[in-house]
Specification:
By secondary structure, the protein is mainly beta. The chain has a single domain, classed as Lipovitellin-phosvitin complex, beta-sheet shell regions, CATH 2.30.230. Helices cover 13% and strands 46% of the residues.
Length: 343
């Protein structure tokens, strides 16, 4: 077990920015949103009918809640700085002819420093990965920890620019991260951070409000359409609380994955994910805490790009538990068994 912290090197100050961002517009639907009930993969044309490519999300408002009502909008304070810790624990199984069932994946806790600025269309977030702590729950994971620590070390100190719309749509812009291993670790961190936000209605709402959203997610080489049902509440401390249930269907697509040899492509045959999360927000709607869990089942066919040879079917099962809190890594991890914060 171990942790990696930022050091004052040239690479530690590198900032990655995005190529063009994915669509950030949020549309409205007057009719309820839905996904197919059958387990499988959705045709991209069917997905485009439900969520047009030019939009980042759509919202269907079911109930506006009770008075007093106010608009839910994310507006970052220029120059504001927040320190948070995001944590993810992943259990992974891959079934094919070449891999064992269980794949050891260390637990990850990352300390992020978020500096905010305003933009014409929302807020810019410059997120610096200040430290990463890794956890090994068993002997198999202990054996892979040294290599994962090297990957984490290459990410620590890097700064990544994200864009957040006033309606809560977050677009991660990791830029040119070198190496598939770094990209996968960064994806795991961003998935938790993105779950700390939620897409909100265009009209003012109050406690008890209920709405649906449809958006896109990328995970384990697949694109998924995510349907969420969001309820707004308030806790005893006066914080707004979002209770979110999610269901996802993968799109039937053929794509290249950087983890595969160049001559191979993968086709998504089926994909289903179910999850829930609880997000607590301060009066400015900035995340205070997050707890989430998500279970994903994906099936791919791996084939040669030029044809020839038999398809190789691969099934991937993921169970991901995520948390986010404000503060520093040591404080967030106090009391955790086996957290391994040795400096």
């Amino acid at each position: 077990m171990g942790s990696v912290t930022a050091t004052p090197t040239a690479s530690a100050t590198a900032t990655t920015t995005a190529a063009p961002l994915a669509p950030t517009g949020v549309g409205r639907r007057d009719e309820p949103l839905s996904l197919p009930e059958a387990v499988g993969a959705m045709a991209p044309s069917d997905a485009a009918k439900r969520l047009p490519p030019e939009l980042g999300a759509v919202v269907h408002l079911i109930d506006r809640g009770v008075d007093p009502m106010s608009p839910l909008r994310f507006v970052a304070a220029p120059g504001g700085t927040t320190q948070v810790v995001v944590a993810t624990q992943t259990m992974m199984a891959v079934r094919d002819d070449a891999h064992p069932d269980a794949v050891p994946v260390p637990g990850v806790r990352a300390q992020l420093r978020v500096v905010t600025a305003t933009d014409a269309g929302g807020s810019v977030l410059d997120v610096t990965i200040e430290a990463i702590a890794l956890e090994a729950p068993d002997a198999a994971t202990e054996r892979v920890l040294p290599e994962v620590k090297k990957v984490a070390g290459r990410l620590v100190g890097t700064t990544h620019r994200l864009f957040l719309t006033p309606r809560g749509l977050l677009r991660a812009a990791p830029g040119n991260v070198k190496g598939q291993d770094e990209a996968q670790l960064l994806e795991a961190i961003w998935e938790v951070w993105a779950d700390a936000f939620a897409i909100v209605p265009e009209v003012p709402v109050g406690v008890g409000a209920l709405w649906q959203t449809l958006s896109r997610r990328h995970r384990a080489g697949a694109e998924l359409l995510r349907l969420e049902r969001v309820r707004l509440d308030r806790d005893e401390a006066g914080h707004l609380v979002l209770e979110v249930g999610a269901r996802e269907i993968a799109l039937a697509q053929t794509s290249r994955d950087a983890a595969l040899p160049k001559e191979l492509v993968m086709t998504t045959r089926s994909g289903l994910a179910l999850g829930k999360r609880r997000v607590i927000r301060d009066p400015h709607l900035w995340p205070v805490a997050l707890e989430s869990d998500l279970a994903t089942d994906l099936v791919f066919d791996v084939t040669r790009r030029e044809g020839g040879g038999a398809n190789k079917r691969t099934a991937v099962q993921l169970t991901q538990v995520g948390k986010m809190t404000r503060g520093a890594l040591d404080a967030a991890g106090s009391g955790d068994q086996g957290s391994g914060h040795g400096r």
